[in-house]
Amino acid sequence: MIETKSTSKAATIAGWIISGLIILFYLFDAIGKIVKEKHSVDGSVALGWPIEHIPTIGFILLACTILYAIPRTSVLGAVLITGYLGGAMAVMMRTPGQPYLFPLLFGALTWAGIYFRNKKLQSLVKGTA
Q: Is the overall model pTM greater than 0.90, yes or no?
């Protein structure tokens, strides 16, 4: 097995800052859907979602976000969030005028945050695992 250098303190801090901001965004989005906040409902309805499905979508995102926030399950959470964002991107692409690249950006930030703070993931990506 090849030894890997430990993640630098600066990279770990950057990873937690990125992850923290992403987690806050996902929590804000999920809770807005769960409580049926007006802007969240209006945006979801504009994308074609029936009002009765919006809280369920919020609970799914909330569960994925909680898994992402817990270090032991963060990779599973990132994988599930990636699936969620893929669905969001597909829905936005079929609706004219929607900023469909935002899910791609948030997915990249989700993985960047976990990459910088997770030595095992860095080894796996670099092929030294």
A: no
